[in-house]
Amino acid sequence: MVRAPSPVEGEAAPRDDPSELAELARRCGHLASRAAEAGRALSRDSARLGQGWQGTAAAAAAGELVAAARLVDRLPGLLSAAAAVLRDYAGAVEQATDELARLDARRVHTLVRQPPGTDAELAVLQARRAQTMARLGDQAVLAGRRLLAVADAVVPARRTATGRSVGPAAREPALVGLLPMLAAQRARSVTGGGAGAVPLAGTPAVLVRSWWSWLTSDEQARLLRTRPRQVGRLAGLPAAALDAANERLLARYLADPGDRSVTDDVRRRRQAALVVAGAMARARSAGDPVTGAPVVVRLLGFSPGAFGGRGRALVAVGDPDTADNVAFVVPGMGTDVVHGLPGLVEDAARVRGTARRVAPRESTATVAWLGYAAPGYTTVASSTPATVGGARLSGDLLATASRPVAPHLTVIGHSYGSTVVGVALRAGPVGVDDAVLLGSPGAGVGRAAQLHVPAGHVFVGASSRDPVSYLDRFGLDPSHQRFAAVRFQAEDPTRNPGRLDFADHTKYLRAGSESLANTARVVAGEGEQVTRAPYRHELPWRPDGISADPEARRRPTRVDP
Prior knowledge:
Blueprint: H1 18-52, H2 56-113, H3 118-152, E1 158-159, E2 165-166, H4 174-178, H5 180-191, H6 205-213, H7 217-226, H8 228-231, H9 239-254, H10 264-286, E3 297-303, H11 306-309, E4 312-317, E5 325-330, H12 337-358, E6 364-370, H13 384-401, E7 408-414, H14 416-426, E8 434-438, E9 458-461, E10 486-488, H15 514-523, E11 537-538, E12 547-548
Parallel strand pairs: 5-6, 5-7, 7-8, 8-9, 9-10
Antiparallel strand pairs: 1-2, 3-4, 4-6, 11-12
């Protein structure tokens, strides 16, 4: 007899409950009514205030009440819009669930009867099931975007405490804060868990932040202790929480198994952990160049087995949650945890230290971001690693930009890392104020304006001796005038005196280099102070990509800001 398996055995099934979504929609409607009542009460109170209280304090209080009333007046409509989104998505989930039930019933019927062409019929049913789940996934993403758009409408464009403008991508959606049950529901739905569920990696940072804030301190501590792997991957958590989770993981990998029979994979992961721990220790021991105080170093991400064993690690030098200026440093070809992370962390620390000297009154943090599968020599011509890495980078940038008080945010891409940066920025605004492309083979676009960074805030450093910077493999050479970026001086005093040299491709963040000094000025928010360089230009009657560089004739100097 043929056993009829469970209809969903080993297969995906909707995790969102339409009844729970409908309940959320009802609660949004209820909150809309309460918000309307609160708006009327605020209006009455502000009117009464002026009747019996006069003076400066009274005027200030009245102004606050009026501002609050204006905000609350908008909430009923926005909450009603959120309720409509939830109702629509609940209907989509219910429809998909019914359709999947019919397909599963046909699958069981086919398996039991075993008619001619059973395998073909099962393949058709499986394809339809996959299509239904894919369609539901698209609808879930659309619903999430609509909810975040509604939430973002609550917060008008504002200025931060430092006087910098906060754009839509860097706002904290107030609606998410008003609907903690929405964040909790999302956490449950994406994991299938209960009260202790952890959102999946990739959940929008605003939802992660709201979910975390509504946990008690005991619940947070328990999750950091029992679920460090899941918690340590959540962009949007406080840097201290990410560090606590990932350092717990690091300690596990550092523990000596004391068993000669351990696998090579275990040894490789322990080696990666040793490299990460060593790089962080060196960064901590350096001290701040202005105050001499110890530097905070956070492990924002760590997965030694990621990318086929090459590893993933995100190390912050300085505190990215409180710093006035935050910069991500994205490496290029051939970088992995064991062979590339120490140098990347040193570069990030050097950028931070130089930026501190440029702007000693402002705090700065840099993030050594090894969050993608950097290509090797055989795959460097492919854009696939940049496409995948750019999507991950954009999420981490947006999580930083969506702090309650947004920092001045810079992203620095070296070599193939500049291509990753281009992918991350061309998809849409992620709150980046400045972008720096160093030794770039192309940023995946033909114009700086396509990178969703404020005009005049895409900077390019290209050494005249760096052969990689002439390749324009992934778009127009950014050091040309047609690209319309700001080219700054990036020659190193130790450059090859007479010809192109791959060694000069690695000198952009070397101490004393023109490129490091100019990059630090951008990171510190002093981009207008960079020393500009003339653009390259194509040579006539030569193949595309063969350029003349006026910087080749200039003698570089050592720069120590």
